[in-house]
Amino acid sequence: MLHIVVCIKQVPDTKIIKMNPKTNTMDRRTAPAILNPYDTHAVEEAVRLKERYGGIVSVVTMGPPPAVNAIKTCIEIGADEGYLITDRRFAGADTLATSYAVTKAIEKIANTKPIDLIICGKMSIDGDTGQVGPGIARRIDIPPLTSVNKVVEINQEEGYAIVHRKLEDGYEVVRSTLPCLFSVEKTINEVPYSPLPNMIKAARYKPIIWSVDDLEGVDIKQLGLKGSPTIVSKVWAPQKPDGGTYFEGSPEAQVDQLLSILLGKKELFETKEGV
To answer: What three-state secondary structure class fits 61?
Structure first.
């Protein structure tokens, strides 16, 4: 029976969030908190593997107390249990400190329920680094398989997994030993609407909540701001591009207007000498 752990994150909906023009920082109050979209697909893939091979799906996240809502969303999708690590001492963590804290939570889970597979979303939409998943794999000393867009086989008896990885110029078929970590693309699956029983379970579900003191063997110096060697020195909103040129009149007239602009830019049609 597989035990799959999915690492998730609650993030602001970047489609709605606004920038504060005075401070050049994200105004998180302007956008609702949602489950990171990449993580949604990670949970869905874990649930599909559970249905295919049997097992349980646990989700774990680090964040403020309201992050329990992201866990409830995972329960709706089909996860079995959720863990939230929340403590002021986690605040201000970069990807290095985050991977350390989440690894400590995973190690505690594994003490009672050995873990066969860890799945993460490729990246979070508020950070876009894609570093936490590989960071967790490195700390646990298991193979990280990034940009996974298809899981071909999980063979627990023989201890291997076969996946397809998305590359810039194609796909790569990889066989890895278990346990290992996948970071998955959004194209790996489509997330259907949750069935009513899952929604009812999620509404009633109470995640397991741990503070720093509940974890084992934690080096406080590696948490939060103290454990973060990187900082975001400045954030700003990109300038909006100027509006385009609108052509009016008949199709023939619009073509003439377009050609006059293009022919006025001779450099578009010039070739370099020798080319």
So the answer is: strand
Using alpha carbons only, how large is the chain's radius of gyration in Å?
A: 23
- pLDDT number for residue 247: 87
pLDDT in tens, 209-251: 999 999 999 999 999 999 999 877 777 667 777 777 788 899 9
Are 124 and 41 within 8 A, CB to CB? no
CA distances from 74 to 80, 102, 159, 259, 267 (A): 9, 17, 27, 54, 54
| Total Cβ atoms within 10 A of residue 109 | 19
pLDDT in tens, 81-120: 999 999 999 999 999 999 999 999 999 999 999 999 999 9
Parallel, antiparallel or unpaired: strands 33-35 and 208-210: unpaired
CB-based contact 47:80 (threshold 8 Å): no
Strand partners, 153: 162
For tokens 């700390």, the residue is 139
Contact between residue 184 and residue 149 where contact means Cβ atoms under 8 Å apart: yes
Helix (H, G, I), strand (E, B), or coil: what is residue 155? strand
Cα gap 218→101, rounded to integer Å: 8
* Spatial CA neighbour of 95 closest among 67, 64, 128: 128
Chain centre to alpha carbon of residue 264 = 46
Q: How far, in Å, CA of 215 to CA of 101, rounded? A: 9
The token pair at 114 is 């050995």
Nearest to 210 by CA among 91, 86, 119, 99: 86
Separation of alpha carbons 47 and 190, rounded Å? 12
64 with 119: CB under 8 angstroms?
Answer: no
Task: Answer yes or no: are the C-beta atoms of 14 and 33 closer than 8 Å.
Answer: no
H or E segment at 59?
strand 55-62
